[in-house]
# Entry
Amino acid sequence: MKLYFAAASPFVRKVHMSAIELGLVKQIELVSTHVSPGKENATYTDGINPLGKIPALEIDDGSIILDSSVICEYLNHLEGNNTLIPERGPERWRVQTGHAIANGIMDAAVSNRYETFMRPEEYRWDLWVNEQWAKINQALQWFENQKSDSMETIDQISLACALGYLDFRFADFAWRERYAHLSLWHQRMSETTAYRETAPD
Amino acid sequence: MKLYFAAASPFVRKVHMSAIELGLVKQIELVSTHVSPGKENATYTDGINPLGKIPALEIDDGSIILDSSVICEYLNHLEGNNTLIPERGPERWRVQTGHAIANGIMDAAVSNRYETFMRPEEYRWDLWVNEQWAKINQALQWFENQKSDSMETIDQISLACALGYLDFRFADFAWRERYAHLSLWHQRMSETTAYRETAPD
# Structure
């Protein structure tokens, strides 16, 4: 399999960590891929992902699987033990809802990265940036309130990648001071092989 | 069940259409919900979705299910025949990949709605708007190339909602002239009960 990849993307990191946790990473070739607003990459958008986003997974029959959440579910299926995503019942919806909330943190953080770094200064809109920070804080508070110690399911892997992205791109955002449980939990998570081996910097 | 709802959202429409197609709509109470950049809605973000996005589904035990894609999978599970999403095999990944691409059209179109309508004129960035239109066109071309006549799976329902949103918010975007197969397909789709009953206007 080929994973279209950039280490800076939290969505890519989520898939990469998942592949490591599932013991599938040796079956995956990482294909470095550059996508960025305003930079055309026709080879990628014509052949792999018309949305021009990463990650994308190309499986051995040539099919493309998108997006990061579908790829994680595919890898979970391939491994066969439902390690990342419970197969059925209330646990499945609880885990996938947490996964969606962690994805929302990544979306908001990536949106603020575009707004405060890539967008020319004269076109930046403070209200938008503040709105994304509000979403991020509300979602982190939601996870803080869960007081979960789990580190194995896709909601927790995604949360770790979201926090890692905040540390990577917004080092001044002092989330550890506000979310004491998440701070301790992330400390443990950051010692895992999967987290260490996928660090963006 | 309660669906937190606004008729203008293509993601909400996807869930609403799915519920109709699955014969579950009578079990769902629609709860009109206003979320918008810069407008606080603490009741919703504290109690339902910390990301402040719609849709959200509240099921009868009080649990919340997020996001639109997870809700569709939940409803598909509830109905029990895997009508929207094949249970397993290559067909599952093909349908969910199409679903992700249609979601990407919605994301890009909603982003352009924010950029060209909600964002103050002096802060608008043409490069961003053009980038989203490129994504939308590439994704529509991808669907055009599929030449699919199917109307029942979640990829097709999502595509119908994405096209409906383009008609609703960007009536000048003449996609029918460029995508002849999609134009005919959408015409048939627009005659279905589920599509008609969920029209935003």
Remarks:
- Chain B touches chain A through 47 residues (CB under 8 Å).
